[in-house]
Structures are given as C-alpha cells and as structure tokens.
Design brief:
Elements lengths: L2 H7 L4 H27 L3 H4 L3
C-alpha cells in the first residue's frame, strides 16, 4: 500500500509514519525477502558475503 495513503488514513504525517513504523516495515521487508529466497531455493549461506 502507498505510504502516503497509510499516513493519511492513520491521520499521521509521512515523517511520523516512517519514524514510528520503520521497525515494522523493515521486518516485513526481511520477511518478504526470505519468502523470495525460499521460493528460489537460495540458502542463507549463499547470501552472505565473504
């Protein structure tokens, strides 16, 4: 969903949205990336850099 719309519906500014929800948003990004990696068969060891 568009962050501007989320902020509007929550009656917050974009700055407040990012400040207070950044941890949640980062967690969702990590989860989405994990689902993609799982679907592609990418292991955690192959995603780390040496």
């Amino acid at each position: 969903m568009d962050p501007v719309e989320v902020a509007r519906r929550a009656d917050h500014s974009i700055a407040v949205l990012w400040k207070f929800y950044a941890k949640i948003l980062r967690g969702q990004e990590h989860r989405a990336n994990q689902l993609i990696d799982d679907a592609l068969g990418v292991s955690e060891e192959s995603t780390t850099t040496e």
